[in-house]
Specification:
With 409 residues, the chain is mostly helical. The chain has helices spanning 9-22, 24-41, 46-57, 61-87, 95-111, 115-130, 134-162, 169-191, 193-210, 219-222, 225-229, 236-263, 270-283, 295-306, 312-343, 355-360, 401-404. Helix content is 68%, strand content 0%. The relative contact order is 0.14.
Length: 409
């Protein structure tokens, strides 16, 4: 028997809190509050910023250029992971298209609080436009995330070992094992879609019986799961190449930080720089401020001073150089790519675009796919296959609603 209308008060309260926290004005105020707190906590150390600025003015420009090249290599490697995995599902995407999407998605991710969710939704939407099915796009999200997490765990373990730090082999080993099992499980799922679909249907029927609902409820949502996932053909060689590219992505970013450190004249141990980078990345996962502004920078400075044994002024200077490249510079490039690639041909020249049109790439007179392809979501290898989407909002978050938020019924 269902409770009466007034019973689920906690759920309603949680719902109101979630809606309140999603308000852009609330997130902007939280960002401002965190920056004020960081500025207040650093009030007695402002002289370090002056010293750091002096170190920046004396920075070696060749190392700054090398750091910039390393960061672009990291973005290329990240896009190549997407190319390898998506092509294994039969979706023929150009490398230039994948690189443009990677840069644009990074701009969304680093500019707004909670940006990674917007970025993931944008990638999901664009992959549907390339011809991927929702199941394949979701498979890519999970597998690429597992490969990225495993690469970071391996680098972190190696850094702690080189620093002779107290390493907990069981917890680290279990983390790496769990991520490897997740990657293996996703690959196995792609190779045995019929078995997976049959198992999901059995679980769904059992759940419906427990809920005293019709056994075939939601069966239509699972139908075709095997057909969609059977398109994936990820050989062991391609999987190994994707793993290598994922590692290269992290290594290139670490080299960017290392070059930034050397640019200001510091020569810390490489293992200390690696551990500082990984710790800052973990702190930045929450990203309650744009690009982790504040918490990430404080973590980087603290780790470079405490673990890499750098002077405070040089650590601040190195972090400013690194963040100017990896955060500010990359975001500017990403927005330029986004506006040129996804917005330029999608608005009416006689009417100024609204923020929604800029955010979604929706034209006044229609939509285009990535790089202005007029076929949109229905195009795949020049064919006329209908779109896997079912219509609705074309916003960055719109098409990702199914994988991100299951139906509450």
């Amino acid at each position: 028997m269902r409770p009466d209308h007034g019973t689920p008060v906690p759920y309603s309260r949680r719902r109101r809190i979630k809606v309140f926290m999603r308000d852009p004005r609330v997130r902007a105020l939280l960002t401002l509050l965190i920056l004020v707190i960081v500025a207040f906590a650093a009030r007695g150390h402002y002289h370090l910023f002056s010293e750091g600025w002096q170190a920046i003015k004396q920075a070696n420009n060749w190392y700054v250029v090398a750091a910039s090249v390393a960061m672009m290599l990291a973005m290329v490697a990240q896009a190549e992971v997407m190319v390898v995995l998506i092509r294994s599902a039969g979706v023929q995407v150009k490398r230039s298209t994948a690189n443009a999407l990677g840069l644009a998605a990074n701009a969304w991710s680093s500019t707004f609080p909670g940006g990674p969710a917007i970025s993931a939704a944008m990638i999901f939407r664009e992959q549907l436009k390339w011809g991927a099915t929702p199941v394949v796009a979701s498979w890519y999200m999970v597998l690429s995330g597992a490969l990225s997490g495993a690469g970071m765990a391996v680098l972190g373990f190696g850094a702690m070992f080189l620093l002779s730090a107290e390493v907990h082999p069981y917890s680290m080993g279990l983390t790496i094992l769990a991520l490897c099992l997740l990657a293996w499980g996703m690959n196995w799922t792609a190779k045995h879609p019929d078995t997976v679909e049959a198992g999901l249907l059995r679980v769904l029927r059992w759940y419906n019986r427990r809920r005293r609902a019709p056994e075939d409820r939601w069966n239509d949502r699972l139908s075709g799961f095997a057909d969609q996932l059977s398109a994936v053909r990820l050989s062991p060689g391609k999987l190994l190449w994707a793993v290598s590219l994922s590692m290269l992505n992290w290594i290139a970013e670490i080299f960017c930080l290392l070059f930034a450190v050397h640019a200001v004249g510091a020569t810390p141990p490489v293992s200390g720089v690696v551990l500082a980078f990984i710790t800052a990345k973990l702190v930045g996962q929450a990203q309650i401020t744009p690009g982790g502004l504040g918490p990430v920078d404080a973590t980087l400075v603290g780790m470079l001073v405490g673990v890499a044994e750098m002077a405070s002024a040089k650590a601040i200077a190195a972090v400013i150089v690194f963040r100017m490249i990896s955060f500010i510079g990359l975001a500017i490039i990403g927005w330029l790519v986004f506006l040129w690639t996804f917005v330029r041909d999608t608005v009416d020249p006689d009417r100024p675009p609204t923020f929604r049109q800029i955010a979604t790439g929706v034209a006044v007179h229609g939509t285009h796919g990535a790089h202005g392809h007029p076929h949109g979501a229905g195009a795949r290898d020049g064919g006329d296959r209908p779109s896997p989407r079912t219509g609705g909002d074309a916003s960055p978050a719109g098409d990702a609603a199914d994988p991100a938020e299951p139906d509450p019924n």
